[in-house]
Specification:
single chain; 29% helix; Aminopeptidase; alpha+beta; 153 residues
């Protein structure tokens, strides 16, 4: 029996995606994959930044056979340590029924082509073994840095 091959499409996030992406963000930010819960205010700002043509953020939609399957958001910066542009994979969410269908693998191949020559970075929660396995298969390696942050105000 021949295995059915699903058509995976990766496209830029658009205004028409705002509602469905916000719903996926609520699920993603409520999961153990991230440290904060986020908020609708933050989600709205993130989506607006991604669709506004900002040089700092971009977003992508994953579709399988025309059906919404997930999203990703990227943050763009420059690494003085490596002397090149840096693309952070900030959000990567695939709807459960579409997981293990090659979307993540296809997305990282897309990023390698789309951002050739750029440093690609991401964060992963230690307990998220399936995600870490995907990232390692895509060529990501553990970096021994301790992340620190400071909120404004």
């Amino acid at each position: 029996m021949k295995k059915e091959v699903n058509m995976i499409k990766i496209r830029k996030l658009e205004e028409r995606d705002r509602g469905p992406v916000k719903e996926m963000m609520r699920v993603f930010y409520a999961s153990p994959a991230v440290m904060t819960d986020g908020s609708d205010e933050i989600f709205e700002k993130d989506i607006t930044e991604c669709i506004s043509g900002s040089p700092f953020a971009s977003g992508y939609i994953f579709e399988v056979d025309g059906e919404l399957a997930g999203y990703s958001m990227l943050a763009h910066s420059f690494s003085t340590e490596f002397g090149k542009r840096c693309v952070w994979v900030e959000d990567l969410y695939i709807i459960p029924k579409f997981r293990r269908q090659g979307i993540g693998r296809e997305y990282f191949s897309f990023l390698d082509r789309e951002f050739a020559g750029c440093l690609l970075r991401l964060e992963a929660e230690e307990d998220n073994a399936p995600a870490i396995r995907l990232y390692e298969q895509a060529g990501f390696k553990r970096i021994g840095y301790r992340e620190m942050g400071k909120q404004p105000g």
